[in-house]
UniProtKB/TrEMBL annotation, chain A:
Keywords: Membrane, Transmembrane, Transmembrane helix. The keyword Protein biosynthesis does not apply. The chain crosses the membrane at residues 21-37, 70-88, 100-118, 124-150, 171-187, 202-220, 240-258, 278-297, 309-330, 342-360. The gene is yedE. This is YedE family putative selenium transporter. It comes from Proteinivorax hydrogeniformans. The keyword Transmembrane applies. It comes from the Bacteria.
UniProtKB/TrEMBL annotation, chain B:
Residues 3-63 form the UPF0033 domain. It comes from Proteinivorax hydrogeniformans. Pfam families: TusA. This is Sulfurtransferase TusA family protein. Gene3D superfamilies: TusA-like domain (3.30.110.40).
Length: 376, 66
């Protein structure tokens, strides 16, 4: 057992170092996100966790929207990158069992929101960097959603505690699942769908996609990069450390987009985007809200799933099923706008989330030896 | 001493509980089981000049004695 005593002082040098580290990781992620569009991925969609998981759902034949079906190797790279580095750094911990069913459904709601906005928080940043002003409307929605989530947490909301699993087998399931998807991408069995047109047909070469995914997965695992986490820390404890990763992504992607001629400023005629401001706002508000309740944005959930977190794995499966649901139920937006089903879907998700938050705000978290009653 | 058990909780609940307990005052110890929660809490301590001791075993124990 290591034991040491620290008399804490505000150490500006250390803080700057940490922020620089996150900023540079953000810069690498942003650069990769932008350059992937040059290498074949859809414009402003170099990296989008929600879109890619939706594509995977389509590739696995879970929905029939022919233009968005591909088993994106980037996602497999993210999970496997996090898995490998977690093993190396001894952070591979198999734990879970905190409200799995609820997480599964909240993940579906998160996908409903993401597909009304058309992108996860990471794509929101990449869209802003591509000059898509609709994504700035989305950013305000995202911040609002995070604010709602923090209100819920402060009111005592919790999904409960995860427990350590003695048997590590379940921790390897998600990495194995994504290895299987990689094999499918290469072998192309007949039961796997590959889009021949639309966003799903815009793909970077498999090795490039996998490699960039691995790099981002490793960096994101080490830096704990989380799109929701940065804004959350600013709102909660006025800590700007994590948000520097966010800024790094934005700046690097912006510069890269300008350099490769993919920068197009404005609201109208953006790639895979629409201009219905209210729904861009509410869509990402729903994502932000869910991200705080679930303990991380879609990117972070993938990373956690890679490092053995079974609750995050459940969330990832919920996101994939959500990707199928939004197309099967016709709630996904398109450049033409948000369908009526999508608007109804977002409202219903908010209502159900409100019920979940109110019924789950039991104060069960803390155990104190002097305070015999459980909770506060 | 108050024992704050935040093991197994999702981010950012460990930090939130730690912050609430700190603001309530008094000595307490927090039981933590994840690196992320540890990093968040230590950063919070440093930013707010909170004195703490830390023991790292199977679980991480951070003690705050005001």
């Amino acid at each position: 057992m290591k034991k040491y005593i620290i008399y804490s002082e505000k150490n500006n040098k250390e803080r700057c170092g940490l922020m620089k580290k996150l900023l540079s990781i953000g810069i690498i992620v942003g650069f990769i996100g932008a350059i992937l569009t040059k290498l074949g991925n859809p414009v402003n969609m170099g990296f989008c966790i929600a879109c890619f998981l939706r594509d995977i759902a389509g590739g696995l034949n879970m929905h029939q929207a022919g233009i968005v079906q591909y088993l994106r190797p980037e996602v497999a790279g993210l999970v496997l990158g996090a898995f490998i580095i977690a093993l190396v750094k001894n952070e591979f911990k198999v734990e879970g069992g905190s409200a799995p069913l609820l997480r599964f459904f909240i993940a579906i709601f998160m996908m409903v929101g993401a597909m009304v906005f058309l992108g996860c928080p990471l794509r929101m940043v990449l869209r802003i960097a591509g000059g898509d002003l609709n994504a700035i409307v989305g950013l305000f929605g995202f911040i609002f959603g995070i604010y709602l989530g923090l209100k819920a947490l402060k009111g005592g909301f919790t999904l409960g505690k995860a427990t350590k699993q003695e048997n590590k087998t379940s921790g390897y399931i998600m990495p194995a699942f994504f290895v299987m998807l990689l094999i499918f991408v290469v072998v192309k069995p007949e039961f796997i769908n590959f889009s021949s047109e639309g966003p799903g047909s815009f793909t970077a070469p498999i090795l490039v996609a996998l490699g960039t995914g691995l790099i981002v997965g490793i960096l994101a695992q080490r830096s704990r990069l989380c799109m929701a986490g940065g804004i959350r820390d600013v709102l909660m404890i006025k800590d700007f450390h994590m948000v520097s990763g966010f800024i790094g992504i934005l700046v690097a992607a912006l510069i890269t987009n300008i350099a490769i001629g993919k920068f197009n400023l404005g609201f109208a005629e953006q790639n895979v985007a629409h201009t219905e401001h209210i729904w861009n706002f509410l869509g990402l508000a729903l994502v932000g809200f869910c991200a705080i309740l679930l303990g991380g944005c879609p990117l972070r959930q993938l990373i956690l799933a890679g490092q053995g977190n079974l609750d995050a794995a459940t969330t990832v499966l919920g996101l994939i099923v959500g990707g199928a649901v939004v197309h099967n139920f016709g709630t996904a937006a398109s450049p033409a706008g948000v369908p009526t089903n999508g608007k109804i879907g977002v409202v219903i998700c908010f209502i159900i989330l409100a019920v979940i938050v109110f019924t789950h705000s039991k104060k069960i978290i803390v155990r104190r030896d002097k305070d015999v009653s459980i909770g506060r | 001493m108050f024992q704050l058990d935040v093991r197994g909780l999702d981010c950012p609940q460990p930090l939130l509980e730690f912050k609430n307990q700190y603001e309530a005052g008094g000595n307490f110890m927090a039981l933590i089981d994840s690196e992320v929660a540890k990093e968040n809490i230590l950063r919070f301590c440093k930013n707010n000049k909170i004195k703490y001791t830390i023991e790292e075993g199977e679980d991480i124990i951070i003690k705050v004695e005001c």
